[in-house]
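Thread: Newbie trying to understand structure tokens

Hi all, I'm a second-year student working on a class project, and my supervisor (Dr. K.) asked me to get a predicted structure for one chain before our next meeting. I've only ever worked with sequences, so writing a 3D structure as a token string is new to me. If someone could post the tokens and maybe explain what I'm looking at, I'd be very grateful. Here's the chain:
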Amino acid sequence: MKKAVYILLFILIALAVYKVIWREEKIKTETTTRIDFQIKKIRKLVKNNPKYNKEIVFLIDMKIPSGKNRFFVYDLKKNKIIDKGIVAHGSGSETGIQGKLKFSNVPNSYSTSLGNYSIGNYYYGRFGKAYKLYGLDATNSNALERDIVFHYYYNVPYKEKDGYICNSLGCPMVNKQYFERIAKIIDASKSNILMSIYY
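---
Reply by user tm_fold:
Sure, no problem. This is what the structure looks like when written as tokens:
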């Protein structure tokens, strides 16, 4: 009898472990598929435009929960992610439904806007050093008018955590330590780096 209980217990544990691993692999595969799709679009955009950096692009995958790494630094030459970190989204993007976000390009919506952005010059404002973002699509064309910029905020965690993190007013907002790493890449670039926010 005891042997049967142990066997049953072992089977249940094995099934639980398999389910967790399968779920993680599925999420990883879906994330990779979305990245590949974005990279194809980015390559077309930068190919014949000397204004844009052809080696580095920043990707932000809004399908990933805010407490997890979803800001990716992608090397277009090596064709791989070379850095990743946590990034906050706009408070106006919250729907009240866990895992579901909404997006807007409307001024004062405090929402994240999807689309490709060109990263402009930095300035010093209320959050310290920040970079102007220029929306390149109909979905983020009001970025400048809305004061959507790339900046840091101390309450954004540096390491991944379960659950969700603080929200911004619509800006992609990262931890100060991570921001400083990204800022070095932006400042060293002779051409504008693109940032793609997608869902």
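A couple of things are worth pointing out once you decode it. The chain has two helices and nine strands. The longest helix spans residues 2-47. Feel free to ask follow-ups in this thread.
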